[in-house]
Design goal:
Elements: H1 7-19, H2 77-80, E1 111-112, E2 127-128, H3 129-144, E3 149-153, H4 158-172, H5 174-180, E4 194-199, H6 214-222, E5 228-232, H7 237-240, E6 245-251, H8 254-263, H9 268-271
Antiparallel strand pairs: 1-2, 3-4, 4-6, 5-6
Helix pairs in contact: 4-5
């Protein structure tokens, strides 16, 4: 996978989309339209990271070498017992095209507005309290490195997802809508554990070129230190069910995110030993 895609990679990505039925890249994230980092080393061993679900404030490590294709791991049995993969209030809940939320209209009980720069409006400015605290620490660390990051889309309720998804169905038909928008009850945004970032300059929001923006490259290199993963990585849509979204971050806790980074595991499905979910059942 390649998060820091150069012009040649973007051209290849464009050809891939053209050859691959022309499906849109704006997959699980269908938000309302929202209004330089130097390279360094790969992430450290998680031996130095305590088993914490919250953010860390270590010095920034900007830049990582491109990862190899994600392996088929044997997930950590010890870590897998820490949190539920089914409870939407759990930081390890897995929501995808095979795993809807239960209940479908789940709403977090602890939604708050994080103290970060925000380009969203309405309910989309909210996150659950754990994710909000981690986001505040991450945005502050990015700012110390001279990288401006904004919250472009946070919480999305079941009723909002109904409206969003139905709009896609009306405009494109259901088959195409399923490539561009999560069905109601299947969106990570509904859990409060996920959000989309934008670059402070507003460039390339929700577009493939966002991968080249400072906010994306910084997040790709550093988000794990605050408990976040890029949920829909490059070329792993046959597993996640969604095309590359360098803007969509998901909180899973520092320990799990660091372990995934160290082991080069790209998806939560692989990390927790779950089946791929390329399409709805």
């Amino acid at each position: 996978m390649c998060y820091q895609c150069g012009p040649a990679t973007r051209r290849s990505f464009a050809r891939f989309l053209a050859a691959g039925a022309g499906l849109t890249v704006l997959a699980a994230c269908t938000p309302e339209a929202p209004k330089a980092a130097a390279p360094s080393t790969a992430p450290p061993s998680p031996a130095a990271v305590t088993a914490s679900a919250g953010p860390t404030a270590d010095a920034a490590t900007v830049g990582q070498p491109p990862e190899a294709a994600s392996p088929t791991p044997s997930p950590s049995a010890t870590m897998a017992r820490q949190f539920s993969l089914d409870d939407p209030a759990s930081q390890w809940v897995i929501v995808n095209k095979h795993r809807p939320l239960a209940p479908a209209d789940y709403a977090p009980a602890d939604l708050v507005r994080p103290a970060v720069a925000i380009s969203a409006s309405g309910e989309a400015v909210l996150l659950n309290s754990t994710t909000a605290a981690a986001a505040e620490a991450m945005f502050a660390a990015a700012a110390r490195d001279g990288v401006a990051m904004v919250l472009a889309s946070g919480y999305r309720s079941y009723s909002t997802q109904v409206t969003t998804y139905n709009g896609y169905v009306a405009a494109r038909g259901q088959a195409d809508a399923d490539t561009a928008s999560a069905r109601p009850g299947h969106s990570e945004h509904q859990t409060g554990w996920a959000f989309d970032i934008g670059d402070g300059g507003g460039a390339c929001s929700f577009q493939p070129c966002f991968a080249d923006q400072p906010a994306a490259t910084w997040a790709k290199a550093n988000a794990y230190r605050f408990g976040f993963v890029v949920r829909y990585p490059w070329m792993l849509h046959p597993i996640t069910g969604y095309y590359y979204e360098p803007w969509h971050l998901r909180f899973v806790g520092v320990e799990a995110a660091t372990d995934m980074a160290k082991r080069g595991i790209g998806t939560l499905e692989e990390y927790f030993g779950l089946e791929a979910a390329p399409a709805y059942l």
